[in-house]
């Protein structure tokens, strides 16, 4: 029987609750589909930072490398550790070190979930560039604390990085409805975003079967609300993709439904799966976090590992639960109730 080794990083706040719920569902799905999963849990989090002065140990990346995949909950506890420290100390280094350059975020309405637009025609796949751009961490501050203080943050866009994420977007469009929306702000950002648009134009002839349209980020935000049915695959830079996918999450009913996969398409290192949401300190320890985003992310992990039937089984069970109204109203059903309902459907 095949065994997959999974690194679990529950992280902070509701991350622990949702990873625990997702793991129960994963184990049941494995059992039903004749494979096994072995978990190794890493305590890396803001609490770990408070104890050790780092979000993960120096050899953290190397200890993750041997796993088949990583399942992460949430990172951040701003009352104790600045968000910039926790993000740049854990999530971003993992994505970069393991060349997880494609962050896939599916946005569609699950059965029984209405969403604020009250439309059933919302089904888009956002592809967020995940290793460079605005989150490169290049910059600095001078004259700190003086009236002359200056802060500079440099976005880094490489030909390798832009070309590979656009190609990934084209390929995903081919697997779906054949439409790719490429998002920039090239009227205002005249170097990096003009470059992104240019690479898009260069690649177009290689994908004559894909209909490509370039949008500015502001127009795309409006389109996602006003005409979501016109969109299929949306590809964007690290920052723009981060923002658009929170909008996508809102339209699909909330962050509790938004799943994501940080994919290394070459499979030269493990990929990482995590709900889009953060640690939600306001509801941590209340037992009311919605675990569906983490369960959906877990299903994406199984799909990536080649266990498509088990992944489909999880999604079917989630939708059976939501179709009956479980987990569809924020705060109504407790995490353990939603988990038990999904488990019963598996
Ligand atoms: N679920 C992972 C998490 O904690 N996300 C919060 C966050 O702010 N992420 C930023 C990012 O995805 O770049």
Automatic annotation (TrEMBL):
It comes from Phyllobacterium myrsinacearum. Has multiple catalytic activities. Apart from catalyzing the oxidation of (+)-tartrate to oxaloglycolate, also converts meso-tartrate to D-glycerate and catalyzes the oxidative decarboxylation of D-malate to pyruvate. Belongs to the isocitrate and isopropylmalate dehydrogenases family. Its cofactor is Mn(2+); Mg(2+); K(+). Residues 5-342 form the Isopropylmalate dehydrogenase-like domain. Keywords: Lyase, Manganese, Metal-binding, NAD, Oxidoreductase. One of its GO terms (molecular function) is magnesium ion binding. It catalyses: tartrate + NAD(+) = 2-hydroxy-3-oxosuccinate + NADH + H(+); (R)-malate + NAD(+) = pyruvate + CO2 + NADH; (2R,3R)-tartrate + H(+) = (R)-glycerate + CO2; (2R,3S)-tartrate + NAD(+) = 2-hydroxy-3-oxosuccinate + NADH + H(+). This is D-malate dehydrogenase [decarboxylating]. Pfam families: Iso_dh. Pathway: Carbohydrate acid metabolism; tartrate degradation; 2-hydroxy-3-oxosuccinate from meso-tartrate: step 1/1; Carbohydrate acid metabolism; tartrate degradation; 2-hydroxy-3-oxosuccinate from L-tartrate: step 1/1; Carbohydrate acid metabolism; tartrate degradation; D-glycerate from L-tartrate: step 1/1.
